[in-house]
Amino acid sequence: MPHDPVTVQAETDDAASSTETTVVSGIQPSGQLHLGNYFGAIRQHIALHDQHESYFFIVNYHALTSVQDNALLEAYTMDVATTYLALGFDPEASHLFIQSDVPEVTELAWIFYNLIPVSRLELGVSYKEKVERGMTPNAGLLNYPVLQAADILIYGGTLVPVGADQKQHIEMTRDLAQKFNSTFCPDDAPLFPMPEPLILDDVAVVPGIDGQKMSKSYGNTIGLFDEGKTLKKKVMSIVTDSTPLDAPKDPDACNVFALIKLFASDARRAEIAANYRAGGYGYGHAKKELLGMIDDYFGEARERYYDLKDRPDYVRDILREGGKQARAQARAYMARVREAVGLVTTYE
Ligand code: AQP
What we know:
The chain is mainly alpha-helical. It contains 15 helices and 5 strands.
């Protein structure tokens, strides 16, 4: 497998070589986690989490932009944590916690609101796409990247492993760090570092079963732990063109092949591409192959997931401890931010 954690580690070593590296990333509890989340971000999170000081959090404030049902939000939040642990996240080696256990991020976001024009936020690609898809353009959705910047900077994040769709948001984070430093800090003592995104070029944006970006809110996902009939139904419904079985096909124009590439070794990938080009290899063959790959890849983690699902108190304890540590760090940073801004603090 070209993308097992070991390979990702090698790929990320350059970007994360500094001894000062602090890895920070969040994930929305807005639905079942899917292949796009995994290959775009989670795989890198798992590979990096025990290599550096790191903070991984479940961004439930962000998820309010799309989930406004309390039982569902709570269930999705626990599900994200359970998924990370099932995939091998070691809570002793890093911090895994819930965003709202560190409410100081909303305070930092408020400060940042004053440093970015509304017109810049209105140009956000993700914002525009979500509105085009029918989401309500409320203030939370518009300000999503500002809260994200607060999430990253409040822990002094320097490296942010994300999918390609988040590139623009990390640029906004950098601009906000720069703007804060130039507005409130002496030139030789900037408060915030400049975070770098870590985006693996070969993954880019993982397509969903309809060929659009795989996204929880688009209803086009393949869940990490989908199995049996559910998994089969989703894989078999991946959109393809109507080229007949016998005819040669272009693998690079095919959604099924785009997903196969994520799982297959280089040699297997080349073989399947050659089959496409030769003709006589149908999309049904490719889908069957993909189905087996997904099952093999996530089979063991799926078993751990179902085991952990029966132990919600254990998962909650891990989140509580992670939140406690993260909050201590965030509070220390906020004390310096408040002083830099001139917010008089009268409590100890
Ligand atoms: N299709 C994708 N391809 C590559 N990376 C992806 N990511 C999400 N979809 C893809 C990456 O997953 C990380 C966590 O994403 P998120 O859950 O915080 O928010 P998102 O990007 O908005 O994910 P969804 O599934 O599209 O959620 P909804 O529909 O609720 O907005 C990010 O690093 C993202 O790049």
